[in-house]
Write a structure and sequence with these properties.
Layout (H helix, E strand, L loop, with lengths): L2 H12 L6 H18 L4 H17 L3 H18 L5 H20 L3 H21 L13 H27 L3 H16 L5 H18 L1
Helix pairs in contact: 1-3, 2-3, 3-4, 4-5, 5-6, 5-7, 6-7, 7-8, 8-9
C-alpha cells in the first residue's frame, strides 16, 4: 500500500476546515474497503485503521464506532511493534489515550480509567526501555526519533491531565494533584506549542486553587 493514501487520510483528519459528512462518508467507505482488501498487519494498515477511528472520533463524534477502530488499530500495532521504537511508543500511548477519552465522552469512567492507566503505563515502559544520553545507544537516536519523543511528552502530558479529571470525579484528590504535577513537567519538556502550554499551566493552577 502506498504512503499517499495514508497521507491523504491523515491530512483529512487534521484539516482545520472539516470536510462535509458526504465527503467523509465517501472517504470512510474507501478506507474501510481498503482495510478489508489489504488485510495483514503492517504500519500502513495500522495508519488506515487509526485514521478511520480519528474521523469517527473527531469529526463524526461517533465514539462507539471510533472505539471499534481504535481497538483494531491497537491490535495491529501490538503485532507489528515488537521492538522499542519512538514511533511504536508514540502510537501506543496515543491510541490508548484516544480510547480513554472516547470512553470519557461516553460517560463510562471505569473503562476510561483503565485506558488512561494503560497509556501512562506504556509511556513509562518506553521511558524505562529507551536509551538515555549516558548510553552508547543514544548516539543512534535519529532526529525524527527526538522529534517523536518530544511529541510523545506532549501527548503524555494531556493524558495525565485528563486522567486527573477522572481521578477527581472519584474524589481521589491527592492522586489527582500528583498526576497534574507530572502533566506540567511533561508539557514543559515537550513539543507543545507555547500557547497550548500556557493554557494548560493556567488550567492546572486554577485546578490546584480549587483543590486547596
Amino acid at each position: 500500500m502506498s504512503g499517499s493514501w495514508n497521507s491523504r487520510l491523515n491530512s483529512t483528519t487534521s484539516s482545520s476546515n472539516a470536510a462535509s459528512k458526504v465527503q467523509l462518508a465517501c472517504i470512510l467507505r474507501i478506507s474501510q474497503k481498503c482495510l478489508i482488501w489489504y488485510g495483514g498487519t503492517d504500519a500502513d494498515v495500522f495508519e488506515v485503521a487509526f485514521g478511520i477511528a480519528r474521523i469517527y472520533d473527531d469529526q463524526l463524534e461517533d465514539g462507539e464506532t471510533a472505539i471499534k477502530y481504535y481497538e483494531e488499530a491497537l491490535e495491529i500495532l501490538e503485532a507489528i511493534s515488537t521492538e522499542v521504537t519512538a514511533w511504536g511508543a508514540y502510537m501506543r500511548v496515543t491510541t490508548f489515550g484516544a480510547l480513554a477519552v472516547c470512553y470519557e465522552k461516553l460517560s463510562r469512567p471505569e473503562e476510561a480509567a483503565k485506558y488512561f492507566e494503560d497509556a501512562i503505563g506504556a509511556y513509562e515502559e518506553h521511558c524505562d526501555q529507551a536509551p538515555t544520553l549516558d548510553d552508547g545507544e543514544a548516539d543512534d537516536v535519529s532526529d525524527s526519533d527526538v522529534s517523536l519523543l518530544a511529541d510523545l511528552n506532549a501527548t503524555a502530558a494531556m493524558i495525565h491531565y485528563h486522567y486527573a479529571g477522572n481521578l477527581l470525579a472519584q474524589d481521589r484528590w491527592d492522586e489527582a494533584k500528583t498526576v497534574t504535577e507530572i502533566a506540567l513537567v511533561l508539557a514543559e519538556n515537550s513539543s507543545m506549542p507555547a500557547g497550548d502550554l500556557e493554557e494548560l499551566q493556567q488550567c492546572i493552577h486554577d485546578l490546584w486553587l480549587e483543590m486547596d
